[in-house]
């Protein structure tokens, strides 16, 4: 009897470990998510993080000049508003315990088609409108030197000349990593509201069919409204805890 219980316990543990408790396989990722109470940035993920707290030190001083060997300031320091969005993306990729759900099967350090909210991309585009960039894609357009540092191949131009709009920006800056969702609820915007969206996005039923059903869309909207009503931070924290 005891043996059976132990066996069952390990079977359950194994299933949940391989399903959820993994991280992407990039150079800074932990093998599996765990709490990081001392994070300097990316605190959205501190209860279950795929990055070590020390990684986020690099993001804690504005302007952020570089993250590991990748320089952010090749076209001058980013404005605070634009930098904040870059950080949100960096934090998601490096630290989110949910990024694994969108792992690129061909390249396990990368994500594929993570659904972003339209308003998130539009706000991001607006936030960077006074900033410049020399690349359309961070994945393919840099020139890398022998130290593994990135350099511009083309001249710096304003964001709004490089990208037509927020959608164009979100869907080209990181290759195929992100797409803009048709839904305004079942999408990520890199804040506490993601807890609601993720609950539906990674549910069994959405894994079976590639498109999310309209009943899930409605359920998501109701849930988001209810969460918004519970104004205290605590309400949101319970949501976050529930999905982990
Ligand atoms: C990134 O930099 C950290 C130190 O800041 C280092 O420990 C880590 O190995 C680096 N990772 C990669 C992929 O270069
Ligand atoms: C960051 O912390 C982790 C775990 O505490 C450690 O293994 C790693 O060496 C640290 N990296 C740096 C650059 O301090
Ligand atoms: C960019 O920021 C760094 C660090 O704060 C600062 O030393 C430098 O002067 C800034 N560069 C420009 C062009 O403002
Ligand atoms: C993975 O590679 C296959 C074969 O080259 C390709 O058909 C598929 O689209 C790729 N998937 C992703 C997510 O890049
Ligand atoms: C862009 O620059 C203009 C004019 O200097 C300023 O009014 C505006 O607030 C800036 N926008 C952002 C997002 O930084
Ligand atoms: C955004 O730009 C793309 C590419 O130019 C274009 O196809 C699309 O219609 C634009 N979307 C909006 C909402 O303006």
TrEMBL record:
This is Folate receptor-like domain-containing protein. PANTHER family: FOLATE RECEPTOR, RETBINDIN. The keyword Isomerase does not apply. GO terms for molecular function: riboflavin binding; riboflavin transmembrane transporter activity; signaling receptor activity. Residues 22-189 form the Folate receptor-like domain. Belongs to the folate receptor family. Residues 1-18 form the signal peptide. Keywords: Disulfide bond, Signal. It comes from Pelusios castaneus. It holds the Pfam family Folate_rec. The keyword Signal applies. One of its GO terms (cellular component) is external side of plasma membrane.
